[in-house]
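A.,

Following up on our hallway conversation. Structure tokens first:
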């Protein structure tokens, strides 16, 4: 290949990097929570396989994000303060928190789990106050129907992921930090719930009072349910931690009531989202092809399975067991389909670049002759 051909091929690679979705850590979120749900339901082989895969995915995405920030800083940080793309960066927080939870639950590795938990806190603080401050002070802002979607609720998911990982860490260490960690888990759980109420009010208003096209119904709208599912999981862990924190014991009726409230709200969303999906793909014939945002639809399915299983255990219901098992299989199926779609898309892109490279090489040889 000629020098000009190699330069053009490298330019195409970097161009793809520039277009990379800020929400790609949804892959880590989806893989991680399905792994945890499988472990809860004693599918250890699946759980551990997805855990090791998730470590590789997380490391690879960290490299890609760092390369994107270095090569295209204006695009990287510009997406961060844009209304439609900025909240996608919260997948880095949620993905880091869920991977921390995997280390603590699947391997009982408190050291790595704690390090990832601290990184998730740092990311949460930086992103929360960067993104929402930028949204507030921007002079030019989109209208509500053009500036908000279900992806905004990733801020809720990120907050609740910290609550979950804090509660899991609190259950695995002794004093003097157990009480403090439980308080942090409680505080993040409460703030995440309040943030959901604020954002969901705007999203529901956008649903009902603005025109809605099939293209507007992006997969992150499943986060409407996923945000409530992870809130249910966090609440269930706080209930289980209550015997070790007196202030949690005093709040136990409140914790149980709001945990069921979150679960019921998330459950209500499932038929609604299915109907909207039928309208999008069936009635409106919207093309069904791989998009990184589909991981935002896989994650809520896995989270609903995990949260329902944990709530059934924490509340001692005993009759909900078949529901999370069914959703685990649904989530696994959705994960496999989306993962295969991702691989097929990657292969097509690489084959296209290889064909382009061959063409460039042939042109170079012709010119030499």
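Then the amino acids I'd put at each of the 369 positions:
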């Amino acid at each position: 290949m000629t020098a000009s051909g190699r330069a053009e091929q490298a330019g195409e690679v970097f161009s793809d990097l520039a277009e990379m979705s800020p929400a790609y850590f949804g892959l880590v979120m989806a893989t991680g929570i399905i792994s945890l749900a499988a472990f809860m339901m004693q599918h250890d082989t699946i759980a551990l396989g997805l855990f090791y895969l998730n470590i590789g995915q997380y490391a690879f995405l960290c490299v890609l994000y760092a390369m994107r920030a270095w090569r295209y800083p204006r695009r990287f940080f510009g997406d961060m303060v844009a209304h439609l793309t900025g909240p996608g960066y919260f997948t880095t927080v949620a993905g880091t928190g869920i991977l921390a939870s995997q280390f603590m639950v699947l391997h009982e590795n408190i050291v790595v789990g704690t390090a990832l938990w601290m990184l998730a806190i740092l990311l949460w603080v930086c992103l929360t106050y960067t993104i929402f401050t930028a949204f507030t002070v921007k002079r030019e802002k989109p209208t509500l129907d053009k500036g908000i979607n279900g992806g905004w609720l990733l801020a809720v998911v990120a907050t609740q992921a910290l609550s979950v990982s804090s509660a899991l860490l609190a259950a695995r260490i002794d004093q003097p930090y157990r009480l403090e960690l439980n308080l942090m888990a409680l505080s993040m759980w409460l703030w995440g719930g309040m943030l959901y109420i604020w954002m969901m009010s705007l999203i529901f208003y956008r649903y009902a009072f603005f025109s809605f096209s099939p293209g507007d119904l992006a997969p992150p709208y499943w986060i409407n349910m996923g945000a409530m599912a992870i809130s249910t999981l966090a609440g269930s862990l706080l209930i289980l931690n209550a015997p070790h924190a007196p202030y949690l014991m005093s709040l136990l009726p409140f914790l149980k009531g709001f945990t069921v409230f979150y679960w019921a709200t998330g459950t209500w969303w499932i038929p609604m989202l299915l109907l909207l999906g039928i309208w999008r793909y069936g009635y409106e014939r919207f093309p069904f092809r791989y998009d990184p945002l589909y991981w935002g639809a896989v994650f809520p399915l896995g989270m609903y399975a995990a949260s329902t299983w944990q709530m059934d255990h924490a509340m001692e219901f005993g009759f909900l067991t078949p529901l999370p098992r069914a959703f685990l299989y649904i989530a696994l199926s959705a994960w496999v389909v989306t993962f295969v779609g991702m691989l097929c898309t990657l292969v097509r892109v690489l084959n296209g670049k290889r064909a382009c490279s061959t063409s460039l090489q042939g042109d170079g040889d012709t010119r030499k002759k």
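Residues 3-11 have pLDDT under 50 and may be disordered. Curious whether your intuition agrees with the design.

B.
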